[in-house]
Write a structure and sequence with these properties.
This protein is of the alpha+beta class and 224 residues long. The protein has two domains: 117 residues; 78 residues, Immunoglobulin-like. Strands 3, 4, 6, 7 and 8 form a five-stranded antiparallel beta sheet that branches. It has a three-stranded antiparallel beta sheet with strand order 1-2-5, with no helix packed on it. The chain contains four helices and eight strands. A hairpin with a 5-residue loop joins strand 3 and strand 4.
């Protein structure tokens, strides 16, 4: 099975994609229950990536022009017009500095978006986070979880198969909560056990940063 991701490969194409995503994200953020801080983070990431790619292009072109001019002045030919000395690269105001990991951070955000109850395929298409090629053989993918106690902690055992990773959620008595995205089986839940209780777990596979298939059957274990 193969499945194309929604992100383009080239930096120039990613600039276009990310700026489109940022503009649409602001429109859908309220529907998806996301905060103004999320919107600001996406906008800052888009501005910074655009700035950096632009700077690389400008300085690459400037370097090429200077190398050409240097070689002309160095080697001639004699009598050739020298032309004007290459001009300095114009300064561009820098945007807000962001932390490393724009696209890993974005992948986590897309996972959050697709796991919200108000997310729809129409929103996904508008944001540009649905793969150009959708594989049809992921419908029946369903993790099988096994829970064991090891060293006083719960180990969630699962099989990776065709998936890239797995999203695990936990209900320790207060409803389902996001626990982790795990890419290497198995996952150890390091939550301290402070009282006797029944912990429940469920999971769904992830391929190319998208939740696919079905939720696993709920697995339960008594802890004390």
């Amino acid at each position: 099975m193969s499945k194309a991701g929604y992100l383009p490969r080239g930096d120039k194409e990613r600039v276009l994609w990310l700026n489109h995503f940022a503009s649409k994200f602001a429109v859908h953020s309220n529907t998806l229950g996301l905060s103004p801080a999320d919107v600001a983070s996406v906008n800052n990431d888009a501005a910074m990536f655009t700035y950096l790619v632009t700077q690389v292009e400008m300085h690459t072109t400037a370097k090429e022009n200077r190398v050409t001019y240097k070689n002309l002045i160095k080697d001639g030919p004699i009598g050739a017009p020298g032309g004007m000395l290459p001009m300095p690269v114009p300064a561009i105001a820098a945007p807000t500095v962001v932390a490393p990991g724009i696209f890993p951070r974005l992948a986590m955000l897309v996972q959050r978006i697709k796991s919200t109850p108000t997310y729809t395929e129409a929103i996904g298409k508008d944001l540009g986070v649905i793969s150009a090629q959708q594989s049809t053989d992921t419908t029946d993918l369903k993790p099988a979880l096994k829970l064991v106690i090891k060293g006083g902690q719960v180990e969630v055992q699962w099989v990776k198969g065709k998936a890239d990773s797995i999203r695990i959620e936990k209900d320790s008595g207060t409803g389902w909560q996001f626990l982790t995205v795990d890419s290497i089986p198995h996952y150890t839940d390091k939550t301290p056990i402070t009282t006797a209780a029944t912990w429940k777990y469920r999971a769904m596979y992830i391929i190319s940063d998208e939740l696919v298939g079905q939720w696993s059957d709920v697995a339960s274990i008594g802890v004390s």
